[in-house]
Amino acid sequence: MKRVFCPKCDYQITFDENKYKDGEVVAMVCPQCASQFKIKIGRKVVRTKSGQEKEVKEPDFSCGFITVIENNFAFKQDLPLVLGDNVIGRRNKDTDGVDVPIITSDPSMGRKHCVIHVKENKNGELVYSLRDFPSLTGTFLRNELLGDKEIVRIEEGDVITIGATTFILHTPNRESEQ
């Protein structure tokens, strides 16, 4: 199943892309706002709001990633992390400054909820830390609420909950650790 977003209202539409051939243009109608738009199956280029086309790059998981656990609000998602601050929050087309947008309808997750900071230590290993943005509902690490301005170190497999959404941290060298 493939997910696309309506360019007008940002409504998420799911459809089976296997019913179409690569390169085929499919006309879609948004069930929420009735906007009509077209997508090209298998296309690695998207059109921006200004009408320009830009190439969509494959996600880079070299600095690790988070896996969002599927629940009533969100589907399973693997979202890459980058060196530096990774602001994590609810995806919204009007929100700038979110580096790791989670596609969810969870009303208890903030648009900017928490931050995972990734840095390389002097041995060349990646080190991860977590802090609340601050958010209204807080950030939980292993069911423990983080304090105001508290920064904690996190590692492979740590479970983090923001709102009603839970995700797991994965480091790029996890296969070699097992």
Plain-language structure description:
- By secondary structure, the chain is mainly beta.
- 2% of the residues lie in helices and 42% in strands.
- The protein is built from one helix and 17 strands.
- The chain has one helix at 174-177, and strands at 2-5, 12-15, 25-29, 36-40, 45-47, 53-55, 65-68, 77-80, 84-90, 100-102, 114-120, 126-132, 139-141, 144-145, 152-154, 159-162, 165-170.
- The strands form five sheets. A six-stranded antiparallel β-sheet has the order 8-7-17-16-13-14, with no helix packed on it. A five-stranded mixed β-sheet has the order 10-9-11-12-15, with no helix packed on it. Strands 1-2 form a two-stranded antiparallel ribbon.
- Strand 7 (65-68) and strand 8 form a beta hairpin.
- It is globular.
Percent of residues in β-strands: 35-45%
Straight-line N-to-C gap? 32 Å
Our count of helices gives: 1
Helix content: under 10%
Largest sheet: 6 strands, antiparallel
Question: What's a concise summary of this model?
Answer:
The chain has one helix and 17 strands.
List keywords for this structure.
178 residues, 2% helix, disordered C terminus
Present the secondary structure layout.
Elements: E1 2-5, E2 12-15, E3 25-29, E4 36-40, E5 45-47, E6 53-55, E7 65-68, E8 77-80, E9 84-90, E10 100-102, E11 114-120, E12 126-132, E13 139-141, E14 144-145, E15 152-154, E16 159-162, E17 165-170, H1 174-177
Parallel strand pairs: 9-10
Antiparallel strand pairs: 1-2, 3-4, 5-6, 7-8, 7-17, 9-11, 11-12, 12-15, 13-14, 13-16, 16-17
